[in-house]
Amino acid sequence: MKNKVYDSPAAALDGLLFDGMTIMSGGFGLSGNPESLIPEIRAIGVGGLTVISNNAGADGFGLWMLLESRQIAKMIASYVGENKLFEQQYLNGELALELTPQGTLAERIRAGGAGIPAFYTKTGVGTVVAEGKPVETFDGEEYVRETWLRADLSIVKAWRADPAGNLMFRKTARNFNPNMATAGKVTVAEVEEIVPAGSFDPDCIHTPGIYVDRIVLSTINEKRIEKLTVRSRENA
């Protein structure tokens, strides 16, 4: 069996990066970000990147690092509302943006992994989302045609992997990661733990190893909380 386990995030990305490539990056908010691989992309310095991700990190964390180094030329994303650096670069014309409804983004990625070039959805009909896209009528309702998304490289964050690349995600980190793992020409997974072969119940595998090319142990597992909301404890 091909060895999929690499010694470091830098080694796991070796030979995969080039200027102008498209990268899918997992995560939702600050949960499930490939936080060990992103700094290595920054260090290597490739530019002109198109990045597909639900959002673009937060101040000092996640994809924000690639925005700060001006390595991203275009984002295909769903939520960009609280990233001031993203906003600044977009308004200054430094960054192209393809804003996509969240469910549509997930389905475009899933379609890319499943080999489905296009599909129809009601989401976005009659809005700027549908501009320039074919609209057809089915059963008296209008639907806009959306196309698949695929990438040169998918980087994902999982909880556990076995040497074959089978992945398990933990709770909210099982967001865009499983779909993105299927839609990259090459998929690199950083994981918190690598377990021996045969450790997984097949019914508990979220992403089969056939989709995963390289595995590396995470060097960063901060598990940040983006917005901490608490209330005063009531008196007994």
TrEMBL record:
InterPro entries: 3-oxoacid_CoA-transf_A, CoA_trans_fam_I, NagB/RpiA_transferase-like. Pfam families: CoA_trans. The keyword Transferase applies. SMART domains: CoA_trans (SM00882). Gene3D superfamilies: Glutaconate Coenzyme A-transferase (3.40.1080.10). GO terms for molecular function: transferase activity. Keywords: Transferase. NCBIfam families: pcaI_scoA_fam. This is CoA transferase subunit A. It comes from Sphingomonas mollis.
